Model the fold of this input.
Amino acid sequence: TVCAGNNVTFSVTANAAPGDLLTYQWRKNAINIPGAVLSTYTISNVNAADAGNYDVIVQGPSGYTCSSATSAGAALTVTVAPTASISYTSPFCTNNATLQNVSLSGTGSYTGGVFSALPAGLSLNTTTGAINPTLSTAGTYTVTYLIAAAGGCNAVSVSTGVTITEAPTASISYAGPYCNNDATVHTVTLSGTAAY
Done:
């Protein structure tokens, strides 16, 4: 099994009497491959169309007891590397009790990966990618989605940014009581935290 885009080489070892030359013919699915006449056969930049069963016919000189022999077959399976993309509609406020789901898209076998976040402080479901803002600390995070290596293909990792903002608090007060015939404009005292 190889990942699409890589190279693969088939080889065969055949014994002959000293001075006797052997000839080779590689086949795919029992059909001769033009130009594949050496003891090795390499496919560069493998793609899905190259998948199949490969063997080689080894031909000896005229007069050999067994003038030709066909090797055992070797099955070539080609895996296409997955792609993935993740995003969130952040920022999220710490007073938002609704789970925030990830938007995950991709090609190939892109599902079933694992989510993680840095730095610590983000309440993240590592399986689903859902974020719980109320259990998270305000800050900026990098969420990463990792698809494990499989089928000869390397692991795939993609990331996106997420911002959690602190829920504001506020309080107001006046110095009153005031008389109803007081024409003075009295100001409010406003205090709080975050973007109050």
